[in-house]
């Protein structure tokens, strides 16, 4: 039996090890530590807050729905069924929540140094008062500790929302989503938070996406379209965007593999649309049509004001067997090389200087930060640099990001922190991480004589508070 | 109204924050702090030094001609006309110098952490004695302060050239440039500096470049060619290179998008040249011909001794509207992925070990530093690693560069610092930055027990003094 | 004459400069400093240990056979003949060992900051008690010092093997290698070390490799095949793998330029094989067949348990003239961009979750660490992250590696250190370097409050001892 490992949260965590610089970082951090959380892009379900039911158990809360957590164990040789995830094709009976939690505790060492390990520790200590690293021996005790806490009113979603000091929380939604939970939350006098939807139309724009044709028919139907041609399709997209805007949406999100944009006339677009709806579009034209539709989304954003965000470069569902048995979002999504400068040129040619247009570029290929994204943001008024995303949303990667983009684009073309999470409990830990890291980065610049301290203080506050409001029009 | 932010220059700026390492860095830096500046590649106009007129005003000096400075404001939503830049298609009346300066001061926070912010601070403090960060409130006062200084004889270009301790300054010139200013400066007994031209033939080598055919005719004409065929064209290029050499040139510079080189026989080259001159060259063959001409430039460099420098990988004039209204070099140039190992293989196969041949490779795609450029320089005697360039010419990027190339290629295959600037006043600040950063990098190696201090001292001096002389044959 | 530079080995070399973090690093390092060396992949010849002859002289030992060392001097303009390397096409008489050594000493400054410079210093000081940096003046003296030491019994290969505390040493071998030295060593009661072969079949798998057809015939012959068709070929490969396994092999290594894998039916594979054996395979099909054979190697690894390692992405023999005069492995091998996520998808689709399958991915294109390799290893149970390799096997690169992969894949999907060296004397210096760097990385995480110290101690030991045993099934 291994000895228990104690866990604790240092007041100075994530600050530089050098004492002088650490002191500057701490002082910068203190100016923003208690500012409200603005989360303009994420994947928390609004139903969680609408229903305000207690979380079921630690496995449901931390493991089963978080593919960042499950993929680590899967990579260590643990079958998904042992984590309580049902196999759609039958297979083994999924483990009970307590068994799944125990498996997780046995693999805690695998999270050492990872992004998930960081925020889980934060949550265990700060929210649940735990002071032992999970392991086989304390798994049951930790399960019970968390389970008991979850029964308390103060651990219900709305109570946590308040405790977390969240001012704005954006969800990500299908264009045909009813938005009923959003409406109900907005009308609920007892809930003061601002929970807004985000328009995410990928599956309606790409003729190669499975079920595209059926989705387009549903879109036309839902939008009371009078025809089924290209113009009706465009109108229907505009109608649904308007519906989102009325429910508070501030942005539209696009998760393409490559951010290809294509300049195309209406006649050709209409012809390709028709061919697509007849299932007669070849791959090359389908790619071109999808690239044209990304241009159309930019055009609509220029007109209706929705901020356009692009999250490209992920080869999703890399392992077909996992997809078939356990579905999407099971951690088998792998980044690939991404191009921005050439791919986005048609879009930027047309809308790069359009008044009020905001285009936020994210990447999981960090070579783009210094090479393409910072130079684009340092030139086009519309372009903003998205925060480090997905695999890059972790301390070292965040420091590499700031180092890569700042010297070219400064601090005032970055989006502010984006948690992009479906793990509700991780939100304060993630935003706190970002604030500490930005304080550390600024402290180094001050320590190296590259930035006056007073300017660093201004930048610190702007990064946390001013920029997300400005970039996302909040 | 925001409080004024004080600016000052720490004696220890850019040194590591760790006290012990900082002390080593300071001591290394002191050995080279006062060495003369060798600037073997840049874009200052020789006319500036020939005429030796006072700089007109702060906006003319710092803003209007510096696309690094203007692009930052443009990216913040400021129209170029507000910066005093005339719109070639009419448009708004350009702002007065004082208005442009005020706009710049209002956006000073956008330069926090940027390369331009760093050297502008250096110049404001060291040259003009300013101790307040620019802002809306002090804009007029700063304008007047700088304006008054510029009237003094000690702020004339030649006086600054002396004060900056510049030993050699290379300009970048069209192959048909008269070189009259260079000749006049060389003959001027009252001017002791060495100002040398650089042969930059891109527009004469690439059949896809606008006006290529007309330029080739002008080249043939200027070179007293007896024909208009391929051999006459090659002869003419050699004639012009010789003219540059006689005026002191030591290098020829090549700004291709991709450093593609193509092995091709004379017969085929002649045929492609003829087709190009008749406007009958398709894109594929034009690319091949340009790749062949890069080979020809290497061949000529082997023969006439001009150092060959390549600055590839930039998608220039990314935004067509800006190009049409405001012209080239307005900051809308975006790096793209670049390949060296495969693209340069034909050239290196032929000339990689040729006696006396020097090939200096620059990049704005920093992934190439460790992957391709350092391995090439660590193997071919002709290849040298160009200093961090353009977007990478800033403290963090320079440290990433040294870290990426040194372990493979050591210190003795790097070119020495290249400022590549058109901002005359930035030259001492940039070279000082480079010296401080190299001292910091070496100090870390000493501190980590990886390099004896005496060896670090030797390397320090060689990087600043020996290497640029050797690489550029000065 | 330059003053002599003293060299020494700091007890704290490679630890962070910050005093507090250094102390943690030192304490972590002490826990593993004396653990035995496990070297599961390298290029030392087993004959060295079988014969146990004294090393001939310093040039033979450090220069002539080490292309990392010779390429640096070649890049400084030194002809290979001056390093004692014979020109296969005649040319200059190769220099004597003493002359070659002197040339090396004269160029010692060129190794400052390089990977080779680091371990050579370690060996000079620790093994030979040298305390002066090599230079022209002490070259003869150093030659004699080393030469005298080499005559001692304690400097024979087997004595060093013991002194180095090597537990396992893997060699790299042709599939038709007799393995006689391995057998003899295993049967030699006086030698206690474990020296195991590695199956390296590249030249038998790629129809474009020179001599492929002849090699396949030899393979069929050596394997007592009854036919010459595709099935006989597959059988023969399995027979030879089995022979290696019986001699202790634990892995098969694959040095492809791109890790392309292709799903292909047996019928098509057989047809392409036949065409290849008739010399009638076009390049496209040859690439596909080689991609299919990489799949076959994975299939065999799943069946026979050999760990599959892939070392891709190197453009070998970049300079044809050097190849013709001096042969392969002369330092003219240049990394190129490499793709993993897409290239390996067919292989991972089929074998990514196969029980007991281990696939270790190496790269010389470090952009892959965070973008593709860590996400693959953080998802597929079979995939492990190979240690920094070749140009990246040096202090700063190793730190970039840990920073790039850990936040996504943790510490428990990395392979443990791989020295991959043919320089026998460098083995302890390299493993010591790796241990110090991992201690430094972990110490920083502890210092930044990201990892409890007790967990860092566990990880430290696992990285050095547990992981290589597990990943390579030792």
Descriptive report:
The structure is a homotrimer of 474-residue chains. Chain A is α/β, with parallel strands linked by helices. Chain A is 49% helix and 6% strand. Chain A has two domains: 54-155, Orthogonal Bundle (uronate isomerase, domain 2, chain A), CATH 1.10.2020; 158-471, Metal-dependent hydrolases (TIM Barrel, Alpha-Beta Barrel). Chain A is built from 20 helices and nine strands. In chain A, the strands form three sheets. A four-stranded parallel sheet of chain A has the order 4-5-8-9, covered by helices on one side. Chain A is globular.
What is the CATH-assigned architecture of the largest domain in chain A? Alpha-Beta Barrel
The major pleated sheet of chain A works out as:
4 strands, parallel
Assign a percent range to the helix content of chain A. Answer: 40-55%
CATH topology of the largest domain in chain A: the name is TIM Barrel
Number of domains of chain A: 2
Number of helices of chain A: 20
Q: Determine the structural class of chain A based on helices, strands and strand pairing.
A: alpha/beta
Number of E-type strands of chain A: 9
Largest interface (CB within 8 Å) is between: A-B, 50 and 56 residues
Runs of chain A with pLDDT <50, length 5+?
none
- Rounded mean pLDDT score of chain A: 97
Shape of chain A: globular
CATH superfamily of the largest domain in chain A: Metal-dependent hydrolases
List keywords for this structure.
homotrimer, 474 residues, alpha/beta, uronate isomerase, domain 2, chain A, 2 domains, 4-stranded parallel β-sheet, 3-stranded parallel β-sheet, 9 strands, 49% helix, 6% strand
């Amino acid at each position: 039996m291994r000895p228990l490992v104690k866990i604790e949260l240092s007041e100075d965590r994530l600050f530089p090890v050098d004492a002088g610089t650490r002191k500057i970082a701490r002082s910068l951090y203190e100016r923003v530590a208690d500012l409200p959380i603005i989360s303009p892009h994420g994947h928390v379900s609004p139903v969680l807050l609408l229903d305000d039911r207690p979380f079921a158990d630690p496995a449901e809360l931390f493991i089963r729905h978080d593919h960042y957590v499950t993929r680590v164990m899967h990579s260590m040789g643990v079958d998904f069924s042992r984590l309580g995830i049902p196999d759609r094709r039958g297979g083994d009976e999924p483990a009970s929540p307590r068994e799944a939690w125990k498996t997780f505790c046995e693999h805690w060492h695998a999270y050492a140094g990872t992004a998930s390990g960081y925020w889980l520790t934060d949550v265990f200590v700060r929210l649940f008062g735990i002071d032992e690293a999970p392991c086989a021996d304390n798994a049951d005790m930790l399960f019970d500790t968390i389970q008991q806490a979850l029964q308390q009113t103060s651990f219900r979603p709305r109570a946590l929302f308040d405790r977390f000091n969240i001012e704005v929380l954006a969800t990500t939604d299908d264009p045909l989503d009813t938005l009923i939970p959003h409406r109900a939350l907005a009308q609920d006098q007892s809930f003061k938070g601002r929970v807004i939807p985000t328009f995410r139309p990928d599956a309606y724009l790409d003729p190669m996406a499975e079920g595209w044709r059926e989705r387009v028919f549903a879109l036309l139907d839902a939008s009371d379209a009078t025809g089924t041609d290209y113009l009706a399709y465009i109108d229907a997209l505009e109608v649904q965007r308007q519906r989102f805007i009325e429910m508070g949406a501030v942005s539209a999100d696009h998760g393409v593999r490559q951010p290809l944009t294509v300049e195309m006339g209406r006649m050709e677009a209409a012809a390709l649309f028709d061919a697509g709806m007849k299932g007669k579009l070849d791959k090359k034209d389908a790619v071109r049509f999808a690239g044209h539709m990304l241009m159309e989304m930019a055009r609509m954003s220029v007109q209706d004001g929705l901020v356009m965000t692009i999250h490209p470069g992920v080869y999703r569902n890399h392992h077909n067997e996992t997809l078939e048995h356990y579905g999407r979002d099971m951690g088998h999504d792998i980044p690939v090389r991404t191009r921005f400068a050439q791919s986005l040129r048609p879009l930027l040619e047309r809308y790069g200087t359009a008044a009020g247009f905001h285009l936020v570029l994210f990447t999981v290929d960090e070579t783009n930060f210094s090479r393409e994204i910072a130079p684009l943001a340092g030139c086009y008024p519309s372009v903003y640099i998205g925060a480090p995303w997905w695999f890059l949303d972790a301390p070292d990667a965040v420091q590499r990001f700031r180092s890569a983009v700042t010297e070219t684009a400064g601090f005032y073309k970055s989006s502010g922190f984006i948690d992009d999470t479906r793990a509700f409990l991780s939100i304060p830990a993630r935003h706190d991480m970002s604030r500490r890291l930005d304080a550390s980065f600024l402290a180094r610049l001050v320590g190296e004589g590259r930035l006056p301290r007073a300017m660093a203080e201004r930048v610190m506050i702007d990064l946390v508070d001013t920029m997300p409001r400005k970039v996302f029009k909040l």
